Each structure stands twice: as C-alpha cells, then as structure tokens.
Amino acid sequence: MASRSILIVEDDDAFGLMLKDLIEEMGYSVVRARNGREALKVLQQVTPSLVLVDLFMPEMNGHELLRAIRTDPRLNAVPKLIMTAANDPMLGVKEDISVLYKPIDVNVLARVLEKHCQPAASLPT
Predict the structure, then answer these.
(1) What is the number of alpha carbons within 13 Å of residue 62 lying toward its C-beta?
(2) pLDDT tens-place string over residues 64-87
(3) Cβ atoms of residues 83 and 112 within 8 Å
(4) How far is Cα of residue 66 from the mean position of the Cα atoms in its chain?
C-alpha cells in the first residue's frame, strides 16, 4: 500500500496522541502539530494526504489555519477535516468542509480517512 500521510492539528496532547496511535494502527503515517502556527511550519516542508484540524487552539485556531491553507494553491487542494466538540450543525456548511464531531467514532473516522486520503510522501514523526 502506498504511504498515506495525515497531519493532526490538535492542542490536547492526550487526545492528539491517542488519535495519532489509532490512525497509525490503520496504516497511515502521522505527524502532529499543537496549533495552527506549528501546522503551517510542517506544511512548508510536506504536503499530507489529509489535514485533521481542531477548531479551538491557542496561538492560531483552526479557523485561522484553514484560511491560511486556502490561500496556498498547493495546500488548498489537500482535503481538510474539522474535528470539534462544538455542536454546530451548520459548521461544515459555513466552512465548506467535512466535520468529525468529538467524541470521534472510530468506524466513522476509518471511513472518512479512506475516502479522503490520497497517497503522499511520508511525514516526519
């Protein structure tokens, strides 16, 4: 199977590590960033198959990160997926992006990753 890489942008270390381990067990390579600024640094070096973005983070939140990604033609084509505990049924419509609501259902996550991930170069860990 070709390497499929995912960038997880999540400020909660426990949740981020659990999600990283889970996704790696599904056969994907994963790198984490703890906020939008860290994510932009990672994205300067690599283009992942998918970006999973938490919305509420310090320094640069998910909304700001998504706006920055949209301005870069290389990154705008990368599938982006919001992860949030916020119960806003219009969130995906407003952001024009798919949403995974926390707590995340493992089966839903697996289907979403398979649907959105395209082969890409491996990410540094």
Answers:
(1) 24
(2) 999 999 999 989 989 999 998 877
(3) no
(4) 10
Name the residue with tokens 């599904």.
Answer: 26
12 within 8 A of 54, measured Cβ to Cβ: yes
Q: Which residues of the chain are under the pLDDT cut of 70?
A: 1-3, 88-96, 118-125
DSSP string, the chain: ----EEEEE-S-HHHHHHHHHHHHHTT-EEEEESSHHHHHHHHHH---SEEEEESS-SSS-HHHHHHHHHT-HHHHTS-EEEEE----TTHHHHHTSEEEESSPPHHHHHHHHHHH----PPPP-
Instruction: For the chain, report the end-to-end CA distance as a whole number of angstroms.
Output: 19
b/e map of 78-116 (b: 16 or more CB within 10 Å)? bbbbbbbeeeeeeeeeebebebbbeebeeeebeebbeeb
What pLDDT is stored for residue 122 in this prediction? Answer: 43
